């Protein structure tokens, strides 16, 4: 099973940027889609972005044009560049691997992103 470890979270002001990184070990993520999800306090975990094996990205509507997902199959990593951050982006961000967000079979431990107004 793939072990996923996120990094790059932190505190940023509205309009700022952060770059999250997810490193995989134990197995290759190259055979799967990989992506990011988030969970805000008191809310359910939601899909944020995913990138397929072939490199096709998908985003939830609220982050389109602001977030960019990328993967490096050689390094076994997936990154999420987050620009123009808003307070509503505040959440714990989780990396996942698997056929899709709804069928993910590996999850990271999460990294906190806090956007101050």
Our estimate of the beta-strand percent is: over 45%
Unreliable segments (pLDDT under 50, ≥5 consecutive)?
none
Total number of helices: 0
> CA-to-CA gap between the ends?
39 Å
- Could you give a short account of the major beta sheet? 7 strands, mixed
- The helix content, as a percent range, equals under 10%
* Rg result: 13 Å
Return the structural class: mainly beta
Task: Please state the overall shape, judged from the principal axes of the Cα atoms.
Answer: globular
What is the averaged pLDDT score?
94
Q: Work out the number of β strands.
A: 11
Helix/strand order, N-terminal first: EEEEEEEEEEE
SSE layout:
Layout: E1 3-7, E2 10-13, E3 18-25, E4 33-39, E5 46-51, E6 57-59, E7 67-72, E8 77-82, E9 91-98, E10 106-107, E11 111-116
Parallel strand pairs: 2-11
Antiparallel strand pairs: 1-3, 3-8, 4-5, 4-9, 5-6, 7-8, 9-10, 9-11
Structure notes:
The structure is a single chain. By secondary structure, this protein is an all-beta fold. It has strands spanning 3-7, 10-13, 18-25, 33-39, 46-51, 57-59, 67-72, 77-82, 91-98, 106-107, 111-116. Strands 2, 4, 5, 6, 9, 10 and 11 form a seven-stranded mixed beta sheet that branches. A four-stranded antiparallel beta sheet has the order 1-3-8-7, with no helix packed on it. Strand 9 (91-98) and strand 10 form a beta hairpin. The N and C termini lie far apart (39 Å).
């Amino acid at each position: 099973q793939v072990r996923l470890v996120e990094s790059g979270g932190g505190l940023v002001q509205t309009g700022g940027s952060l770059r999250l990184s997810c490193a995989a070990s134990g197995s290759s993520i190259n055979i799967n889609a990989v992506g990011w999800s988030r969970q805000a306090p008191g809310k359910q975990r939601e899909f944020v972005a995913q990138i397929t094996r072939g490199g096709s990205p998908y985003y939830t509507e609220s982050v389109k044009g602001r977030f960019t997902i990328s993967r490096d199959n050689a390094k076994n990593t997936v990154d999420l560049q987050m620009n123009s951050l808003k307070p509503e982006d505040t959440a714990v961000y989780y990396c996942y691997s698997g056929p899709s967000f709804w069928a993910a079979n590996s999850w990271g431990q999460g990294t906190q992103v806090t956007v101050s107004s």
